[in-house]
Write a structure and sequence with these properties.
The structure is a single chain. By secondary structure, this protein is an alpha/beta fold. The protein has two domains: 277 residues, Aldolase class I (TIM Barrel, Alpha-Beta Barrel); 67 residues, Alpha-Beta Complex (Type Iii Antifreeze Protein Isoform Hplc 12). Helices cover 28% and strands 18% of the residues. It has eleven helices and twelve strands. The strands form three sheets. Strands 3-4-5-6-7-8-9-10 form an eight-stranded parallel beta barrel, surrounded by seven helices. Strands 1-2 form a two-stranded antiparallel sheet. Helix 1 links the parallel strand 3 and strand 4.
Length: 360
């Protein structure tokens, strides 16, 4: 199965659907705006505009309530250190009210982009029901959070489940949920480090999850590399998520692991080139190969002049170019056959030269 985005006949915007491996599959590129709006709706709208201009298919935001998400023991992660005195303070500064988020979703739709949101608490998905989202996404730590996964699945939208911090055996319950989810979805390989060093990208995880779970697999990319998304496509990813920012040096938890506008545009372009190079998941003869195939393949050829009535031996035959005669793979088939007419040396053998024709 392939996981693609295509125009829906039933609703406006773009929706996720599956296609078989012989169908052209557009890799879905999601611009992860996340909290890079810094709590400013104007910045959020500008980032949506940038995502559209860069060729992304979708944008993704985060939706959370600090009081729902954080216990009294909540801590700042290492990459968040220095951003605020506490995680509660940090998240309070970055949280978007539901009406503001709804406005950003509408703006994304007006730009021709799909809209995806990551909720963080089991109560959050119910707040999102009226926004007209195209898919739900869960963050990596929540791949093992059944209450949140079940609440997201209840919305009936396609689901993207990021898998950073998880071992393969931990992911079977999430994979089982996706296999039984009517709207479909994908697992996203991810390394939850911000940023992720290139030598820690572990793109082989895409292959491992495809083989283990027989589900569409994508990649949530936190590396600084511009070609990592393209490499992930070659590894089999059908959804790519990448953080987009107005300024990678801006103060905030995710800017340093994000790409600015020009870099993001190149990132998307490289993904599209990789997708074109990947082509269909088949191995067949391309039309552009047919001339070389005809000229360069070899056919059964007669070594020396032979009279009518001669019974062919292996020593009478060789293979030579072009590939327009009896295929080289059939050489042994003609040994023991009797010639109906005389043939000249260095001529391609024809079935019409023989008394004993091959059966149809």
């Amino acid at each position: 199965m392939r996981f693609v985005m295509q125009e829906s006949e039933k609703k406006s915007g773009i929706t996720f659907s599956a296609a078989d491996d012989r169908s052209p599959a557009k890799v879905t590129v999601i611009a992860e705006i996340g909290v890079n709006h810094d709590g400013d709706v104007v910045v959020g709208r500008r980032l949506i505009d940038t995502a559209a201009a860069c060729g992304a298919d979708a944008v993704k935001f985060q939706y959370f309530h600090p009081d729902r998400l954080l216990s009294n023991q909540a801590e700042l992660a290492g990459y968040q250190a220095g951003q605020a005195a506490s995680q509660r303070e940090l998240l309070a500064r970055l949280a978007l009210p539901i009406d503001v988020l709804g406005g950003l979703v509408k703006h994304a739709r007006s730009c021709g982009l799909a809209a995806v949101v990551t909720p963080f608490s089991p109560e959050d998905p119910a707040d999102l029901m009226g926004l007209g989202l195209d898919a739900m996404k869960t963050a990596s730590p929540d791949a093992v959070n059944p209450p949140l996964l079940e609440a997201c699945a209840a919305l009936g939208l396609p689901m993207l489940i990021s898998t950073g911090t998880c071992s393969l055996d931990e992911l079977e319950p999430a994979a089982a949920l996706l296999r039984g989810h009517e709207a479909g979805g994908a697992l996203l390989h991810c390394v939850s480090s911000y940023p992720t060093p290139m030598d820690q990208a572990q793109l082989g995880g895409i292959v491992a999850m495809r083989e283990a779970f027989a589900l569409p697999v994508g990649y949530s990319d936190h590396t600084p590399g511009l070609q990592t998304g393209a490499l992930a496509v070659m590894a089999g990813a059908v959804v790519i998520e990448k953080h987009l920012t107005h300024d990678p040096s801006a103060k905030g938890p995710d800017h340093a692991a994000s790409l600015g506008p020009e870099a993001f545009k190149q990132y998307v372009s490289d993904i599209r080139e990789a997708q074109c190079a990947m082509g269909f998941i088949v191995k067949d003869v391309s039309d552009i190969e047919r001339d070389v195939r005809r000229v360069s393949r070899q056919s059964v050829c007669v070594v020396r002049d032979l009279p009518a009535g001669h019974v062919l031996t292996r020593q009478d035959l060789t293979v030579k170019r072009p590939g327009t005669g009896l295929p080289a793979t059939t050489l042994s088939t003609w040994v023991g056959k009797r010639l109906d007419i005389g043939v000249k040396a260095n001529e391609l053998l024809k079935e019409s030269d023989l008394v004993d024709k091959m059966p149809n």
